[in-house]
UniProtKB/TrEMBL annotation:
Molecular function via GO: oxidoreductase activity
Organism from which the protein derives: Sphaerisporangium krabiense
UniProt key word Transmembrane helix: no
Protein name, as recorded: NAD(P)-dependent dehydrogenase (Short-subunit alcohol dehydrogenase family)
Keyword Cell inner membrane listed: no
Superkingdom of origin: Bacteria
Amino acid sequence: MRTWFITGTSRGFGREMTEILLGRGDRVAATLRDPSRLDELADRHTDRLWRAELDVTDTARMREVVRRAFADLGRIDVVVSNAGHGLIGLAEELTDEQIRRQLDTNVTAPIQLVRAVTPHLREQGGGRILQTSSMGGHIAYPALSLYHASKWAIEGFFEAYAQEVEPFGIRTTLIEPGMVATGFYASADVAPSELAAYAGTQAAAFTHGESSVALRDMPGDPRKVAQAMIRIGVHADPPRRQLLGSDAYRLVHDALHARLSAVRAQRPIAMTTDRDDLTAAGA
């Protein structure tokens, strides 16, 4: 029996993972804004479901919840940083509050969660951290600039953090799903897109949903994504990144291939900027 700590368990991947893990006999420390949304699961799994109210943007509260979870449960094997927030809108029209909320939820909160759990995981001799990211941490679409900024930021953080903590037996994986039929899109914050200057542009079409994929046509199955995340959480040698979904694999593969080609084209100018004395010494 393993013990999992999961944020954002009211819906989506977090809820699916909680149900699957409890069903197979594991323990789950589930955090969410309204713990009563898990009452049904609590009735069926009283001894294995630990709940706590948590708004992940409240850092002080998060540290206290993490402290209590480790104190009450003794050991946590896998931490799943899953809570997130979507924001759709042209960069020019987003409000300061929308920008702040996006970065607080998708960047600062995961960083603070990791900072809170690291000492506990190190002291117990290791553990796993899964961070929900997105294929949007590699590619970008108009009208999603701040969402992509948050995902690219958290990918950079984990690229460095993973190297810091692997000597302590702490392994991390960025989970990068494609388009999945969840309630995430319906709950996303959408800016009004009333700037006439953008009328008829691709960016405006994305903002109004004219270029988006209908929920019924999204290829990802949320329960299958949750099952894959669980497999990665218990994998003997987990990858630092894991794409999930045929669309994620195809789009990221093509984007990285194009980026590598662009890098190769930059070589002639890139090689002209080294210091002459170092170039001569290495000749």
